[in-house]
Design brief:
single chain; 2 domains; two-stranded antiparallel sheet; 7 helices; about 65% helix; about 5% strand; elongated
Length: about 160
C-alpha cells in the first residue's frame, strides 16, 4: 500500500509539472514572430489575405512541438499509472476528475482526460462508476474521453 501512496503522490506532482510545462510552452498552436518551426502558407483562397497581412508584420503560424510532446508524455504517464496502480489508484484519479475546494476548481481538461484514460486502463466496476459520474463534464475533451472509455469497456 505504501508504494500506491507514493505513486499517487508522484502522479499529482507529475500532473502539475506537466500541465505547467504545457502552459509554459505556449499550450499548443498560436502565432510567433519569426518562428523556426513555421507552418506552410495556406492554400490560395483560404485565409490568404490574413496570412499575407500577418506575414507582412513578421508573424508566422507555429506548431509547438514541445507542447505536443508534453501532452503525449502526460498521456503515457497516466496510462502507465492506471496499469500499475490498479484499483488502489482510483481515489487519486477520482480526485483529479472531481471539482474540489470552496470554488470547486478543477484540473485542466487535458489532465482530467488523461485521468479518464488511466481509469479505463484499471477497468474495475469502481473505476467504471467514476467514469460514469464524469460523463456529463462540461468540457468536450473530457466527455469524449469518458465516452470512448465507456464504449471500450462495454466490448
Amino acid at each position: 500500500m505504501k508504494s500506491v501512496a507514493t505513486a499517487a503522490a508522484i502522479l499529482t506532482l507529475s500532473a502539475l509539472s506537466l500541465s505547467a510545462g504545457c502552459a509554459g510552452a505556449g499550450g499548443g498552436g498560436g502565432v510567433s514572430r519569426g518562428s523556426a518551426e513555421s507552418a506552410p502558407a495556406p492554400s490560395p483562397g483560404v485565409g490568404g489575405d490574413r496570412y499575407e497581412a500577418m506575414s507582412a508584420l513578421g508573424y508566422q503560424p507555429q506548431w509547438n512541438a514541445q507542447a505536443t510532446l508534453a501532452r503525449g508524455a502526460k498521456m503515457a504517464f497516466f496510462d502507465a499509472y492506471g496499469s500499475i496502480a490498479g484499483a488502489a489508484g482510483i481515489a487519486a484519479l477520482e480526485a483529479i476528475l472531481s471539482p474540489r475546494g470552496l470554488l470547486r476548481r478543477k484540473e485542466q481538461p487535458e489532465t482530467r482526460a488523461c485521468a479518464v484514460v488511466a481509469l479505463s486502463r484499471i477497468g474495475t466496476p469502481e473505476a467504471r462508476q467514476v467514469l460514469e459520474s464524469a460523463a456529463d463534464d462540461k468540457e468536450l475533451m473530457v466527455r469524449n474521453a469518458v465516452n470512448k472509455a465507456l464504449r471500450e469497456a462495454a466490448r
